[in-house]
Amino acid sequence: MSDQTEEQTPQVTATEPPPDHNLDKTTTKIQNLTTFFSIWPPSQCTRDAVIKRLIETLTDKSVLSGRYGTVPADEAAGFARSIENEAFNVVLTSPGTDGDDGVAILQLYSKEISKRMLDFVKSRSVESVNEGAAVDAATGDGGVKEEEGSSFGVPKQFASRSE
Q: Is residue 68 part of a domain?
């Protein structure tokens, strides 16, 4: 019986692959998985979702709209597409993004979108103020609305009493 046991033992160990072989298979599988997953560039579906979110941000009530006002939906849609497209193109042409893992590129893309959106609402707000000042200048009040009994647009309770 000892002869049979000795013969069976090498057969069992011969069918088991060496540990290094399993490690090589696992490494190959991981490498194959990572080549299929990429964070940059975003898919068209992701870019469309970014545009949709920009439109919501520009048209809905928020801290941003409280300060700069809301944008009509049709105007917001055009500007949202433009903002996203410009940010995407800036990131594609920016130096130092080659060989990056995608996270830094995605952060740059996000910052560019935020910067352009803020510039847009600020410029729109300035245009509104300038249009309002032009209307006030045409009516002759110079855009300053004074309360009764006030001096230089300061309410009377804060105006100096040196008169």
A: yes
73 found inside a domain: yes
Provide the CATH number for the domain around residue 71. Answer: 1.10.246.200
pTM here is: 0.58
- Domain-embedded: residue 14: no
**What are residue 154's DSSP bridge partners?**
151
Rounded to whole angstroms, how far apart are CA atoms 105 and 90? 11
Residue 59: other Cβ atoms inside 10 A: 18
pLDDT (tens, 9 = 90+) of the chain, 163 residues, equals 555 555 555 555 555 555 566 667 777 776 666 555 678 889 999 999 999 999 999 999 989 899 999 999 999 999 999 999 999 999 999 886 666 668 889 999 999 999 999 999 999 888 777 776 554 444 444 444 444 443 434 344 434 444 4
Q: Is 7 domain-assigned?
A: no
- Contact call for residues 83 and 113 (beta carbons, < 8 A): yes
What span, in angstroms and rounded, lies between the C-alpha atoms of 78 and 100? 31
Residue 93 belongs to what domain range? 40-128
Axis crossing angle, helix 73-93 with helix 103-139, rounded to the nearest 10: 140
